[in-house]
Amino acid sequence: MPLSGNDLREVMTDLNIAKKNEVHLTIDAEPHIQQELSDYFTFDVPGAKFMPQYRNRHWDGKVRLFSTATGEVYVGLLDKIVSWAKKSEYSVKFINNEVYGTPFEQNEEISREGVKDYMTAISSHKPREYQIDGVYEALKYNRKLIISPTGSGKSLMIYAVTRYHVGRKRRILLVVPTTSLVEQMYKDFIEYGWDVEKYCHRVYAGRKRSTPQRVTISTWQSIYKMDRKWFSQFDVIIGDEAHQFKSKSLVSIMSKLRDTKYRYGFTGTLSGAQTHKWVLEGLFGPSYKVTKTNELIEKGHLSKLNIRIILLKHPPIKFEDYQEEINYIISHEKRNNFIKNLALSLDGNTLILYSRVESHGEILYKSINSSVDDVRKVFFVHGGVDGEEREEVRLITEQEKNAIIVASYGTFSTGINIKNLHNVVFASPSKSRIRNLQSIGRVLRKSKGKNTAMLYDIADDISSDGQRNYTLNHLIERVKIYNDENFNYELSNVTLK
User: For each of the chain's 497 residues, which pLDDT tens digit applies?
Assistant: First the structure.
């Protein structure tokens, strides 16, 4: 039987791409093309060799975003697939799905001018141009990963997207990493002038998960084990601080939302690893960076930032491994005394960030707290401090002029907004791009009488036999971040005595 014209076109197309659902595309192609795609979408996971699964040989340390077995790949990677096919000189055809439509759908009713008018109408807060651009990109393309640094007014963009879909009688799931962020988002919506009691329901430990209200604001921990039927009620998913979701939990949540057409991720920054970016883009959509921190500083939206790197010079020691060096650093009495004296000498409210609660945080807190008078307030915040107490710390600090907060990176690097914060001290070494930029963001919010913020980056030179110690290499990574972001910094050498 001879081939028809349609059959011939089907045969001649190298990649036939269709939506399986709102989570996955299916790609029909010759086996050798599928293998090329698989190679292209396979990544080595940074630090995999240190993970138990890899050490026990249960995993090869790779993430594969395209399956040759099923032909499936995340919908949000469509633009990358098409770009790859073009470079490889492969033809592409989009197959219509009766339920889920054709890939690359756009919302034709959305215009930038319309978004501007809408954002102006729904809030007394005048939207900035980049906020309008971010909301336009999200609504126009139905799915997007919006990258917007701390202090850029990310919650106003989330509010605008939420209001738009509520106005079209859609149900929205808004997911955040922590209970405190659930409450903060709820309060932000009130501040923007919305009747949140009518439209929004909060979900976290001990609260019911079902509601007639159109917007559910929840921590991802509270819902990721819910069944697919529960997720099927939502038309829209919005993930705030998307970089903080545990990978398996995020994939679980997003995969259960297989009929959810509208997908928006918001984050202040990404890790810098390609695999991290592509997984998030795959689940939410192509990324769009609305602005940069240095641009916000230049335009006066954020405080000016001065960074002082204080390099503590130690006698040379050769450590067996990173863990041994960390234990030495955080237990070093003279180093901890230096941080204490630095904190006591600073004017304005000061945030001291550490990594380990008992072995470092408690030591710093007790040392500082025992050295101040009854007037100066010192707070100790860690994962064991509940959301209400953290909120109390935030409210008190907003009214103080010289408070000191000793807090873990995990609790304060993300999601706690204190405008009246003047200094941040990095007491523990870190090379994480996300952690460092989010932590810097804590101190950049403007407040009355505050135009400049200070970051004190405590680093350690314990080099031996001409080789840099582990955490000195971490400092080099942080300096790369400062250079990438066009931050001003100066270096001071201090010999520990």
Answer: 454 545 544 557 999 999 999 999 999 999 999 999 999 999 887 777 777 787 788 788 888 999 999 999 999 999 999 999 999 999 999 999 999 998 888 999 999 999 999 999 999 999 999 999 999 999 999 999 999 988 899 999 999 999 999 999 999 999 998 888 898 899 999 999 999 999 999 998 777 888 899 999 999 889 989 999 999 999 999 999 877 766 778 889 999 999 999 999 999 877 667 778 898 999 999 999 999 988 999 998 888 999 999 999 999 999 989 999 999 999 999 999 999 999 999 999 999 999 988 899 999 999 999 999 988 999 998 888 777 787 788 888 888 889 999 999 877 755 567 788 899 999 998 888 878 888 888 788 877 777 889 999 999 999 988 899 999 999 999 999 999 888 999 999 999 87
Greatest Cα-to-Cα distance within the chain, rounded to the nearest angstrom: 94
On whether both 80 and 184 belong to a single domain, the answer is no
The reply to whether 351 and 447 lie within a common domain is yes
Residue 103 domain flag: no
State how far the Cα of 272 lies from the Cα of 283, in Å rounded to an integer.
17
Tokens of 482: 């400062």
Task: Please give the full DSSP string across 163-176, using - where no structure is assigned.
Answer: HHHHTTT--EEEEE
- Sheet of 452-461: strand order equals 378-381, 404-408, 350-354, 423-426, 452-461, 304-313, 488-495
Of 36, 63, 95, at which residue does a domain stop? 95
**Whether residues 159 and 140 fall in one domain:** yes
